[in-house]
């Protein structure tokens, strides 16, 4: 019962937390032209829906409902938002990379790319929902069935758990997607940090010699973008680690089940999204102040 209350509360916190960045972006029409604001809003939408979904699953368990179709729908949409959030995070990493490596061309490049990145996020959600629904309709062996088949007949999932409704095939695909997106995000952030560090060292070595207006503007854009990037990368690095550890533990659960441990790690990761939401707002506001100063 305590775990179900915890699920509901975390879902509500996640939902409330992402209302702020969405309000910040939607209430200021200037931000609609900023690619980073669009991508931050896109990620906020995904995470807000994920919070609503988690709250509904918690409420389902607290009310002790017994509607298989509703539980499956909540689980299928929920995993879609979960994987889509990783794609949205990767899109943010792409934006940060372009901002650091191409500071003057960042706006023009990302204006063209933002629609494709947003579309990729929601296409990821749609693929997960269709694939989970298809594998569920085919009545393939579920994760819970696999555990029972290995002689652990005492393992029971009385609540609306993913183990009951995800087929082993689909669960394996999802875990590989989560790890792949997480590792790609880590790799891109790491490379961006190296590019930024190398560029900042080069700028510091130039000294106060006269520079063209374009070089000065490029330097200002880079230095500010690099400061924002380091803050964002710090928060993402603290949470993305769980995105690698949690799937590994869930894969291990096929041989030795630990539903409570997996659930707690999942809730910790969702709590990490609250910090990411705050940094999304701060990052967008800092980007806007930079644009106003450089114009």
Automatic annotation (TrEMBL):
GO terms for cellular component: plasma membrane. It comes from the Eukaryota. Pfam families: 7tm_1. Coiled coil: none annotated. The keyword Transmembrane helix applies. PROSITE patterns: G_PROTEIN_RECEP_F1_2 (PS50262). One of its GO terms (molecular function) is G protein-coupled receptor activity. InterPro entries: GPCR_Rhodpsn (IPR000276), GPCR_Rhodpsn_7TM (IPR017452), TAAR (IPR050569). PANTHER family: G-PROTEIN COUPLED RECEPTORS FAMILY 1 PROFILE DOMAIN-CONTAINING PROTEIN (PTHR24249:SF411), HISTAMINE RECEPTOR-RELATED G-PROTEIN COUPLED RECEPTOR (PTHR24249). CDD domains: 7tm_classA_rhodopsin-like. The chain crosses the membrane at residues 6-26, 38-59, 113-131, 178-197, 228-249, 261-281. Gene3D superfamilies: Rhodopsin 7-helix transmembrane proteins. It is found in: Cell membrane. It is a multi-pass membrane protein. This is G-protein coupled receptors family 1 profile domain-containing protein. Belongs to the G-protein coupled receptor 1 family. Residues 17-240 form the G-protein coupled receptors family 1 profile domain. The keyword DNA repair does not apply. Its main location: membrane. Keywords: Cell membrane, G-protein coupled receptor, Membrane, Receptor, Transducer, Transmembrane, Transmembrane helix.
């Amino acid at each position: 019962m305590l775990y179900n209350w915890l699920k509901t509360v975390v879902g509500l916190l996640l939902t409330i937390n992402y209302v702020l960045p969405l309000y910040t972006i939607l209430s200021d029409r200037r931000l609609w032209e900023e690619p980073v604001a669009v991508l931050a809003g896109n990620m906020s939408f995904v995470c807000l829906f994920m919070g609503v979904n988690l709250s509904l699953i918690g409420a389902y368990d607290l009310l002790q409902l017994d509607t298989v179709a509703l539980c499956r729908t909540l689980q299928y949409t929920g995993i879609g938002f979960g994987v889509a959030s990783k794609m949205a995070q990767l899109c943010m990493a792409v934006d940060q990379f372009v901002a650091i490596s191409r500071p003057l061309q960042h706006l023009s490049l990302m204006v063209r790319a933002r629609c494709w990145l947003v579309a990729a996020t929601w296409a990821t959600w749609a693929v997960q929902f269709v694939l989970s629904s298809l594998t569920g309709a085919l009545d393939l062996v579920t994760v819970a069935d696999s555990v029972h088949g290995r002689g652990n007949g005492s393992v029971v999932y009385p609540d609306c758990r993913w183990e009951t409704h995800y087929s082993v095939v689909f669960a394996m695909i999802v875990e590989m997607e989560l790890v792949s997106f997480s590792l790609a995000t880590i790799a891109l952030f790491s490379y961006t940090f190296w590019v930024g560090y190398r560029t900042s060292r080069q700028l510091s070595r130039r000294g106060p010699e006269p520079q063209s207006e374009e070089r000065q503007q490029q330097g200002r854009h880079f230095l500010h973008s690099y400061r924002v990037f380091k803050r964002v990368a710090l928060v993402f690095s603290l949470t993305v680690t769980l995105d690698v550890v949690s799937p590994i533990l869930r894969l291990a659960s096929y041989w030795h089940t630990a539903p409570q441990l997996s659930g707690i790690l999942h809730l910790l990761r969702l709590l990490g999204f609250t910090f990411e939401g705050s940094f999304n707002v701060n990052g967008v506001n800092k980007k806007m102040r930079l644009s106003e100063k450089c114009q």
